[in-house]
Design a protein that fits this description.
Pfam families: ROK. The protein is built from 13 helices and 15 strands. It has 437 residues and is of the alpha/beta class. It folds into 3 domains: 79 residues, Arc Repressor Mutant, subunit A, CATH 1.10.10.10; 166 residues, 2-Layer Sandwich (Nucleotidyltransferase, domain 5); 164 residues, 2-Layer Sandwich (Nucleotidyltransferase, domain 5), CATH 3.30.420. The protein has a 5-stranded mixed β-sheet with strand order 6-5-4-7-10, with helices on both faces. A 5-stranded mixed β-sheet has the order 13-12-11-14-15, with helices on both faces. A 3-stranded antiparallel β-sheet has the order 1-3-2. β12 and β13 form a beta hairpin. α2 packs across α3.
Length: 437
């Protein structure tokens, strides 16, 4: 869909967005408000009901609906009978099934895809294994195939894709090219957005996977359904440090409700510091453990009473605490969120890490440390939400319609809608496994 509301035309045919930019901005805001209410109510609404819900005048709502019928996912519904006499009132409904949006999480050996309808409901999924030794073009083919499978599993056609968001494990430059990546070295120098947008015929957003997970955590902790945008009346919920702890440790920063990128998009990329090691035993950024083959094993053995494992956890937290404390003193957030595979350890990780980090900080003000709301689904949530935010005009025909971030936790791996389950192709069990990073 290429047309979207930019403002009405005056009687000379001159767009109001040029003649009256302030008026055009108001019209767009009114359209976004009406569309969000229609989407969230999940039932047909009359002009009068929309006017009450949006606090807009009925003539304003009537004009907005006229535009949305042409440009947005809105259609007339069965007229609603009123208790009194008179003709049934016109009613309108949101057509969530009119398009699809993809969220994609790229791993070193896997591709995870979730498909949402225009209301943001998860309606399709696919997961694929990436063969070892594959080249960059081969990885792109795996992504295309997984997205095609997920869209068809949702009961739609690949041509219905209106936008996609991708989280990649690497550093991107301002042109969207991957400049560094240990996980997907075959994509270094590649602009995935350009390549995939050409294939799908729709806008594609590409961002670092950890930064997307961090943004999702911030959005989920903000007040629901406020429609707040980055840079508007920031609160303590708008600043946080996100630490992904799995096989490696990665960091991302959210400041004033937006991803902190820096001049070269390197903010938080501690792995690009020469000689940087989170622990003495880590090799090329990968964590190594003595009391178990993986961190999960070490925490499991500590819970079973293994003193050696418990001691290693305490030592691990003490080793990584100085770097975390330095970041905390630099940006002074209210919150540090732990994501990744080890976030499932819960208080077994948070308690000793909080003690170690707070011990390093001599000032009274200390950040709260907590675990992720999304665990290993942060990148998928961030990819979908960022795509709805960035490409709202292309997806819904109206700019700046706030996404439904708070609807997503718990839905990425849950059952699909009943109408879609029978039509969805089976996904092999082996493809559902996700390496913790």
């Amino acid at each position: 869909m290429t047309n979207y509301i930019t403002g009405f035309h005056n009687w000379h045919g001159v767009p109001l967005s040029i003649q009256d930019p302030a008026g055009a901005a108001v019209r767009r805001a009114n359209a976004a408000a009406c569309l969000a209410v229609l989407r969230d109510q999940e039932r047909p609404l009359t002009i009068a009901e929309l006017a009450v819900a949006t606090r807009l005048a009925r003539p304003t709502v009537d004009a907005v609906i006229g535009d949305l019928l042409e440009t947005g996912p809105v259609r007339p519904a069965r007229p609603q009978r009123s208790p009194g006499a008179g003709r049934p009132a016109r009613a309108y409904t949101f057509t969530a099934g009119a398009g699809r949006v993809a969220g994609i999480d790229i791993g070193s050996g896997s591709v995870r895809v979730r498909i949402a309808d225009l209301a943001g409901e998860i309606v399709g999924r696919a997961e694929a294994i990436v063969p070892a030794g594959i080249d960059g073009s081969g990885r792109l083919r795996v992504v295309r195939g997984a997205v095609r499978q997920a869209i068809r599993a949702s009961g739609a056609d690949p041509a219905d894709l209106r936008a996609a968001g991708i989280g990649v494990p690497g550093i991107l430059d301002h042109d969207g090219r991957i400049t560094q990546s240990l996980a997907v070295p075959d994509w270094i120098g590649v602009d995935p957005a350009e390549r995939l947008s050409a294939s799908w015929g729709c806008p594609v957003l590409v961002e670092n996977d950890i930064k997307l997970a961090a943004l999702a955590e911030q959005r989920l902790r903000a007040e629901p359904a406020t429609g707040a945008r980055p840079g508007s009346d920031a609160t303590s919920d708008d600043d946080l440090i996100f630490l992904q702890i799995g096989h490696r440790i990665s960091a991302a920063l959210i400041m004033n409700g937006a991803i902190l990128q820096g001049q070269h998009r390197l903010a938080g990329e501690l792995g690009s510091l020469r000689g940087m090691r989170w622990t003495e035993s880590s090799k090329r950024g990968r964590l190594h453990w003595r009391a178990g083959r993986t961190g999960q094993q070490v925490f499991a053995r500590a819970r079973e009473g293994d003193r050696r494992a418990a001691a290693e956890i305490t030592e691990f937290c003490a080793e990584i605490a100085p770097q975390i404390a330095i970041i905390a003193l630099t940006v002074d957030p209210a919150l540090i969120v732990i994501g990744g595979g080890l976030s499932r350890a819960g208080d077994d990780l948070v308690a000793p890490l909080t003690e170690a980090v707070h011990h390093m900080l001599m000032a009274d003000g200390k950040p709260v440390i907590t675990t992720s709301l999304l665990k290993s689904n942060g990148t998928l949530c961030g990819a979908l939400g960022s795509t709805f935010e960035t490409h709202s005009a292309q997806i819904l025909g109206v700019p700046r319609v706030p996404p439904r971030w708070h609807r997503w936790p718990g839905t990425f791996d849950g059952p699909l809608p009943d109408a879609l389950v029978s039509d969805a192709p089976a996904v092999p069990d082996r493809s559902t496994k996700r390496m913790s990073r």
